[in-house]
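[Automated response] Your request has been received and processed.

Submitted sequence:
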Amino acid sequence: MRTAFSLALAVALALPSLARAQLSSAVAPAPAPAPIETPPEMTADEAATVLDEQEAPADQGTIDALVAQQVKQNEQLVTNSQKILNWGGYVDFGFFVPQSDGSGYVQDYGHARYPNLSNYSWVFLGDLLAPAVNSRGEVADLGSAPGVDRFDSVNSRGAPGFIVNEVNLRLGARPAPNAIITTSVNFTPRTGSNFSLGDVFDLDLAQLEWLPTTSQRTSIFVGKMESVLGIEYRDRKSDHRFGVTPSLIARYTTGTALGVKVRSKFGEDDWLVIAAAVTNGSNTTEQFHFYDEVDSNAGKTGSARLSIRLPLPFSLEVGFSGSYGPQDRTTTNTHPMWFFGPDLLADIGPVALKAEWLRGRSAGDPTQDVYQLDLHGGGFLEADVMATGSFGLLGRIEYRDAFVALDPSRAYVTKSWRATAGVRWVATRWAALKAEYLYNGEYGAVPHVRNNVATSSLVLSY
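Generated structure:
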């Protein structure tokens, strides 16, 4: 954008000079003509008339036409030189220290804790994704659970270390005043093995936003786009998130999906916002058990959110959202998958409050190796405080009560809670340093798992 502005300014400054040059060339007197030798048959008066006609300047109409043509050419030059493509992104560099081996679960050997689950070959207690180290939700280690072969992206095995969490590149174009094209690509350098690179990339946004009305308060999105569930999708990226890590329920609501979405804003200060989407699958994150980018069944998932800004002395937004559709990763439409829950956003001076609660279920399909889910409940309450213009504090408390299983091979029982404390320092407009400590706890019959994490993130935006 700065390049386009600089070009426009340069052309604007050059415009008067160009016009004067053109005008001078148009009205400058012609070179002095050679002396006219009067033919014997031409009188002196006739010769003077010929000389006056050769030295006469162009008329005013010709001058005005030339100036108008030059102005039009300069305006066209500025228009053609404007870049409609904008780019940006960030580098997210971090350091983390995990507890124990970095994994978030233990095995229930011999079904000692949950004898009622003896029909499963393996039972695991805890939360696979609790010891998160970055905004992507990647964990310090996925452990060495039997019976599966998973891609362990960090695979620290309990060791502290530096990590390039993510390099993000965003491209945006506005080919028309009411159309915006947006893409977002993430690059994640990781350890390779067996003579292969571990570096990967993923495309998390590829959408067209069309604003069909004059007020531009209604948007129609087409492509791979952000969720309408809850509120956490708004700050899922490192440069938007106040802290470092996502919540325990972000895995259900912050994934991007392929489809169509409509969002409309109503009333003064957009006090009412309604959004709805039809997508291939749910908005779970890609690393979790439930995600289907290219759909494997004919049915589609519908989701919607309604939010209201209440007329109070401070900003308060209350919302409710939900989704319903066929189970991801199955070829039939007979197994439904649904989520619903309320959320809240408030800004009270330097304090921002966020809260969300979610419940969900999917029946699973063991004939196609598709997991079942019973999310009995999960939620968080977070407070972000800017103590000064550049220094902030974060506090979050949350829980997740869920049962995930693949009959008859394995089951995961989660009754976990987490307390997160963090700090944030904005060094410049393009650099922010953040740090968090995550204390992960369990309750009920689930034993304590030593999986606390200290993590940090230096986000360099461009």
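Summary generated for your ticket: The radius of gyration is 32 Å. The first strand starts at residue 85 and ends at 98.
If you did not submit this request, please reply to this message.
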